[in-house]
Specification:
single chain; alpha+beta; Structural Genomics Hypothetical 15.5 Kd Protein In mrcA-pckA Intergenic Region, Chain A; two-stranded antiparallel sheet; elongated
Length: about 150
């Protein structure tokens, strides 16, 4: 109901099944974003999703958070980083996510909740932190940074 797509196009998308259903989801998500935020935002969002989810690349438009370089140089536990980045609400939620295999650092699953994240994890000046398939943050190291998701 949240689209200006012609009824024939909606009917075509409704008829899709199997693997094609993801194409329908992409079209509807783009159209909903277009209505809520405008055409430019819809296209930017679609490109971010394509780079992140289809090609596995780090899209610079993903939400990001900066931490003091000194904190990352000394290492932070993945649990702490997940909470401070805003991907989870509590240490317990972070531990459950890690134990369940849903935490990723640079697209690699991490199952050790004591795992330290440090500057060695940087790829092109960022660390891609993921909670599940759809929630991501780019972690950046700044000389002076305020921790805010």
């Amino acid at each position: 109901m949240f689209t200006d797509l012609p009824l024939l196009e909606i009917a075509r998308l409704e008829a899709l099944g199997g693997a094609e259903i993801n194409e329908a989801k992409k079209v509807l998500a783009t159209e909903a974003t277009r209505l809520a935020h405008g055409g430019e935002a819809a296209e930017a969002s679609a490109e971010t999703a394509r780079l992140t989810f289809e090609r596995g690349e780090v899209a610079e438009s993903l939400p990001s958070v900066s931490f003091p370089r000194a904190d990352l140089a000394g290492g932070m536990t993945l649990v702490r980083l997940l909470v401070l980045s805003g991907l989870v609400a509590s240490n317990g939620e972070a531990r459950r996510l890690i134990k369940g295999g849903g935490a990723r650092v640079n697209d690699v699953a991490v199952v050790d909740e004591a795992r330290l994240i440090d500057l060695r994890d940087m790829r092109a000046e960022t660390i891609k932190l993921s909670a599940g398939r759809k929630h991501h943050r780019l972690v950046r190291a700044e000389e002076t940074a305020i921790i805010a998701p």
